[in-house]
Specification:
With about 325 residues, the chain is an alpha/beta fold. The protein is built from 11 helices and 11 strands.
């Protein structure tokens, strides 16, 4: 290669590097898109909007929330990994992204093609039935299921291979019962189906709270480490003899190659937002708690959960068919 060509290549590389540094230093200089994998009006959407609003004040630019429901909440991560790595498109990342590669063919890898910014919180899950249901306890539910294999229908918010779905399958396996799963895109659709008698039970996050408090639904169990303060008489799965705890932590991701300086600015802004009282209050409304993980901790968590979910998928026989 002629000497002058080599010098030109070096100069171009230098200018490109300086341009990237300049862009990171000035980040953000325009609005940021935050994609949320669940419908508007649900617990995830509402709480994410509150946290995003506070983060935007720190960043000095609007954060525009875009709802992308379906595919078990994994659509934002799929879109984000194809976006320019400049920090202007980020996504809410549910636990489901660590399962997708084991159940279907994927052209990308959640562990390699995403930058993990911060983990924010997790859900409080439980199993509800309509107020007029003959099931007044988990024991009633199990007894009927054992006498009538497969006849109990239950819906899950988010659909197939989400935490509500897979956890219910694990619960059914532990209890020795067979259930019929009906997937729904989000909590609002699931609640309508439950109250309308289209499914016999619902596995969901704490979107069930207003229906239980108003007497429209009954809560049979909760899936956290402890009972809910709001419903102190409702047992945990562990108390029912099922050794399962599920909170499905989630946070924010960016495309791989996003500059570390940009990731840090996003992390710091959302960490500050998560600590704001109004954010804590918004989460508490849905019985959710801050569950902070740094970028490094969240990355390590992603690796560990990916391995754990692989084991669960294989045990339930839900892995993709290998050619």
């Amino acid at each position: 290669m002629p000497r002058w060509v080599w010098k030109s290549v070096c100069l171009l590389a230098t200018f490109a590097g300086l341009s990237a540094v300049h862009a990171a230093d000035n980040f953000p200089s325009r609005p940021i898109k935050l994609q949320v994998g669940f419908p508007a009006g649900g617990p995830t959407d509402i709480t994410m909007r509150v946290i995003a609003e506070h983060a935007s004040k720190t960043l000095g630019q609007p954060i525009v929330v875009e709802n992308k429901p379906g595919a078990g909440g994994t659509l934002p991560a799929t879109t984000v990994q194809m976006s320019p790595p400049d920090g202007y498109t980020i996504g809410q990342s549910p636990l489901g992204i660590f399962r997708t590669g084991y159940t279907q063919k994927m052209s990308w890898d959640p562990l390699k093609d995403l930058r993990y910014i911060i983990n924010l919180t997790g859900y409080t899950f439980g199993l509800t039935v309509p107020a007029n249901s003959p099931f007044n306890s988990w024991q009633d539910f199990v007894a009927y299921a054992k006498a009538n294999p497969g006849k109990i229908t239950y819906g899950s918010a988010g659909g197939n291979l989400t935490s509500p779905h897979l956890t219910m399958e694990r619960i059914a396996e532990a209890a020795g019962i067979q259930l019929t799963h009906v997937p729904f895109k989000g909590s609002a659709d699931l609640a309508q189906a439950l109250l309308g008698g289209h499914v016999m039970a619902a596995a969901d996050s704490s979107a069930f709270v207003p229906y239980v408090e108003s007497g429209k639904a009954k809560l049979l169990n909760v899936w956290g480490e402890k009972r809910m303060e709001r419903f102190p008489n409702v047992p945990t799965l562990k108390e029912l003899g099922i050794d399962i705890v599920q909170t499905s932590p989630y946070g924010l991701v960016a495309p791989k190659g996003t500059p570390p300086e940009v990731v840090k600015k996003l992390h710091d802004a959302f960490k500050k937002a998560l600590e704001d009282k109004s954010s804590i209050d918004a989460l508490a409304k849905y019985d959710m708690l801050p569950n902070y993980m740094s970028s490094e901790q969240y990355t390590q968590f992603a690796r560990e959960v990916s391995q754990r979910e692989k084991v669960i998928i294989e045990r339930l026989g839900l892995e993709k068919v290998k050619n």
